[in-house]
Amino acid sequence: MKEERIICIGCPMGCRVTLEVDERGEVVGFKGNRCKEGKEYVLEEYRNPVRVLTTTLPVEGGGTLPVRTDRPIPKGKMREGVRALAKLRVRPPVSLGDVILEDLLGTGANVVATAALRERR
Amino acid sequence: MAQTLEVDVAVIGAGPAGMAAAARAKEAGASRVLLIERQEQLGGLLHQCIHNGFGLFYFGEDLTGPEYAHRFAERVMDLGVEVMLETMVTRLSPEREITAVSKEGVFRIRAKSVVLAMGCRERTRDQVQIPGSRPAGIFTAGTAQRMVNVEGLLPGRRIVILGSGDVGMIMARRLLLEGAEVLAVVEILPYVGGLIRNEVQCLHDFQVPLFLEHTVTKVHGERRVEAVTIARVDRSTREPLPGTERTIECDTLLLSVGLIPENELSRMAGVLLDPLTGGAVVDESRQSSVPGIFAGGNVLHVHDLVDNVSSEAEIAGEGAARFAQGIEEGGEGIAIRPGEGIRYVVPQRIRGRQPVTLYLRVKDMAEGVRVRVGDIWERKFRVVKPSEMLKVELSTDELSRIEGRELLVELER
To answer: 20 to 30 A Cα–Cα from B343, which one of B8, B45, B175, B392?
Structure first.
């Protein structure tokens, strides 16, 4: 039996939940959660913690373009994701929502522009 | 001097508050709505807030700052709000005459009503009084955010962050992802200053060392920051405890130590300010003590979610549109006052009997408490924190039960 600690972010309570996990990685017990929604969040956060990655890319001729993954990616791939994007340079014009890179690190998430860039003269 | 411009509603500042106020004023029937912004685009601070978490309440979607700004900018343009960019308001009179300056020069605007939406600014080192020399490498968290996200510059490589406000925590993650080391987040209180979501996703996710009940006692370095000394503080006096000092070698110190509503223009116009919020004293339509001058968003009180900024500014925009159309709420109304355990309440006055939402903050973290509004409303809260704004919705029925001219909001343990 193993214990995993996860802080629930569902509400300002910030419950510190302890999960009891058996040898096969199955959750067999909860301690410290105070609501049903929290239990679901904590289970998901234990099984498959994911985050939306946001960063900026350099633009040819100067400035930056803010981008995001169009869906959450595994939490452990955040740093690797930024590194994978580090060499990209963006050429204007760009529209909001344009796909800048498809399938980041095989996660199935596309990297999309969160702002528009006008063509430079 | 150019001719004077005549408008119905003038909105000063086109961040999230100003855009929402202008849009709502137009929707509420004001014919000429003018939105004045000193930067070259609509959106204000949202452009440098590239992270997600915006719009969960307002749009029911998880947006980044620039995306959230884009939604409102489109609404503003579609509605036919007149926009003046790269224009700075330098003066506002109680008669709602605005002096502004742009590339074309200085000009005047006469408005039937005005919405103040100038937002807030960051508290600086002088205001938190850190002893030591004055080297380069000390930035507010928001300045660092602009450098990284807008200008594409890294402010330093070895970072210490004083204060655990939301921008500070978000910058910890951002700088880490851009290859810097974040050596410490130092917080004087026994809990973080920002949202729990940011504590988990920005600090815990990246194992950022968090020093609660600590502060920076000295900055070292002549030309550039070389190190900072931090120390544990006494829980009650919050004074540094001798013998607990440790020195951390770093090249950058970021400050995330609070925000201050930006009210220079409000003062100029004679708007009465609430020392508890740093913003105007307003009624439920967000009208200030000066008739026809309204305020909404962080210029009124510092919010923790942009969604609330937008919603509140819409109330101000609607009030301003009604005032411009000659509809006025009369009467002194009822004063809303913070009592035991409550830091502030907005609005500070209720004139009518339409449903009202009170926004309030508590002084300290507490568990298992009751919030009581006079004897018309009460509710139990499992936990309350100064960093998480509470909302109390009062119905017409509850408001009609008010006796007397004052309503006290209290925390009961």
So the answer is: B45
Q: What is the pTM of this model?
A: 0.94
Position B164 scores a pLDDT of: 95
**Chain B residues 349-378 with a CB less than 8 Å from chain A:** none
> One digit per residue, pLDDT tens: chain A, 121 residues?
889 899 998 777 788 899 999 999 888 888 887 788 888 889 999 999 999 999 999 999 889 999 999 999 999 999 999 999 988 999 999 999 999 999 999 999 999 999 999 887 6
Across the interface, whether the CB atoms of B201 and A9 are under 8 A apart is answered yes
pLDDT digits (tens, 9 = 90+) for B224-257: 999 999 999 999 999 999 999 999 999 999 999 9
Q: Which of A68, A70, A95 to mutate to test the interface with B (most CBs of B within 10 A)?
A: A68
Whole-number pLDDT of residue B124? 83
Among B61, B146, B196, B384, the strongest candidate for a mutation testing the A interface, having the largest count of A CBs within 10 A, is B196
The minimum CA-CA distance between B215 and chain A, rounded to whole Å, is 24
Mean pLDDT of B385-402: 91
Per-residue pLDDT tens over the stretch B27-51: 999 999 999 999 999 999 999 999 9
- Cβ-based neighbours of A59, under 8 Å, separated by 6 or more: A65, A89, A90, A91, A92, A117
Q: Is B66 on the interface with A (CB under 8 A)?
A: yes
Distance from CA of A58 to the nearest CA of B (A): 7
CB contact under 8 A, B149 and A52: no
Cβ atoms of residues B149 and A64 within 8 Å: yes
- 3-state SS, chain B, equals CCCCEEEEEEEECCCHHHHHHHHHHHHCCCCCEEEECCCCCCCHHHHHCCCEEECCCCCCCCEEHHHHHHHHHHHHHHCCCEEECCCEEEEECCCCEEEEEECCEEEEEEEEEEEECCCEEECCHHHHCCCECCCECEEEHHHHHHHHHHHCCCCCCEEEEECCCHHHHHHHHHHHHCCCEEEEEEECCCCCCCCHHHHHHHHHHHCCCEEECEEEEEEECCCECCEEEEEEECCCCCCECCCCCEEEECCEEEECCCEEECCHHHHHCCCCECCCCCCECCCCCCECCCCCEEECHHHCCCCCCHHHHHHHHHHHHHHHHHHHCCCCCCCCCEEEEECCCEEEEECCEECCCCCEEEEEEECCCEEEEEEEECCCEEEEEEEECCCCCEEEEECHHHHCCCCCCEEEEEEEC
